[in-house]
Structures are given as C-alpha cells and as structure tokens.
Amino acid sequence: MQAPIASPCIICGADTRFAFAKRFDTHGLGAVEYWRCVACGFTCSYTHSRMKPAAWETLNVASHAAYQGTDEDPGDPRWRTRLEAQARVLDDAAAIGLLDAEGHWIDYACGDGKLADALAKNYARSLLKYDRYMGRGAAYLDDGALVAGGFDLVITTSVFEHIMRRVDFDAIQGLVSPTGVLGIHTLVCESVPDDPTWFYLMPAHCAFHTNRSMQLLFEQWGYTCSVYNVAAQLWLWFKTDPDGIERIVGSANARDGSNPKYVFKRGFVDYWKGSPMARMDVAGKI
Ligand SMILES: [Zn+2]
Fold it and tell me: How many whole angstroms from 41 Cα to the centroid of ligand 1?
C-alpha cells in the first residue's frame, strides 16, 4: 500500500487518502494513483502532482494537440455542440443582463479559441483569448495582460480537471472583477467513483471536483449565487446582487415555459447531485 501523502486537500485542508489506481499505457504515465479528500471528496492524481513541469506540459500538449484546431475531439463527441451552446448561452446571458455586455470577457486556457470565435462570428461579442501553453500570436493575450480583478467575465471550459495546485485555481478566480462573473465548465459529481474504468479518467485529467468541493471554493472566493445551463453544461457564479440575478433568471425561465433555461441557487448549483455520474458516458447520457 502506498504511503500517505503529507499534503492536505488543496480545497478544504483535510487529510487525503489513496482511493484507487489506473494504468495508462500512453504518454509514459504507467500506474496513476488517485487520492481523495476525506472531507470534501476532491480527488486528484498523486502521480501527476509529482511530474516535472516540462513532462506535465508535454502531456497536456500531446493530449490536446490531436484535436485542437480541428472540428472534432474523439474523446469528447459533444465538444462542438457544447461550445456552440456555450456561445449561445453567453450571448443570451448578456442580452438579459446576467453579464455585462460591454465588459471585458476572457476565456482562460482557451486552447484554439473556438468559443471566442463562435461568439464573434455568430453574436458579434468579444471574448478575449488566453492560453499559457497554446496561446501564440496577436489573437491571444500575453501574461502581462492578466490584470487581477480586470475582467467582468472569466470563463474556463474543460480546465478545472487539469489543475492540481491551489495557487492556479486562485489565479483564475483572481482575474474576476469585484462585480464580475466566473464561468465554469467541468465535470462535477456527488462523489468520484472508485472505478478505473470511469470515462473521465483520461491521461491529462488530474483533478476531480465534487459538489462539496465546488461549494467550498464558491464560499471561499466570496460568491453569492450561481446559475447552471444544462445544454451548455455551464455554471455562472455571481458575487453580487443575488436577488437581482434570481429575478432575471425567473423572467428568462418564464419566457421559456416548460423548458427553463437556467437553474438558480444561492450557493453552488449542485445540478448533478443524485445523478449516477459513474454510469454517465462521455456524451453525457446515462
Ligand atoms: Zn477537501
């Protein structure tokens, strides 16, 4: 049995315990150990956390280069459909007043920038692109443009599952202005299954959030309410005016009748609570 890891959970500070292992025959990974927090359930890869930065960057680039810049991701068949839904939801959220339509929006770790391109092309909205590893050229912000509190919307899609250090989570949140919004697309489940065959255990995925770990981040960062859009699998976290956000969501949902567009909660919307995520496939079907 593996020796206990001394470092506590990066979300809540409680102890972590070995949960299970999975063998990868790609990217030189071998046996990967996943450790879980005894309190909040946040689970991360001890093996990835011990990788040297250069090896970690190589793994990330290799696992994303195969589909970034193309139209399909074989490991995520809903990628394009979901991106289009996310662009549609961001446009709608600006139109109804959930987002500052004139504010600075940034897609953090945007990869090839498809979400920003879709927003510009289909909705004439500006979403700035930033990617530490893949962002090259005039279309991307450089590191010097990442001003703390400088953005009215900071969105990350498929990013949280690649982050192992608390400082990196905090750096993303730190870009949000005092009245700004944090947008997140990642997989969140009630509990991470002890199942090496779980579809979400991919070579470059090293961090797995639970409803509890997300609620804790939400509180620690000072957010007051959130909304979730199912089609886009996108959360928007708000710092201010939960009454106003609830009113806007109520009006928008009333217009949509029996198919409400947004789920609202004073806290983190634990939409997938009770859902058998362990059996959900990559297409989001159970
Ligand atoms: Zn924890």
Answer: 6
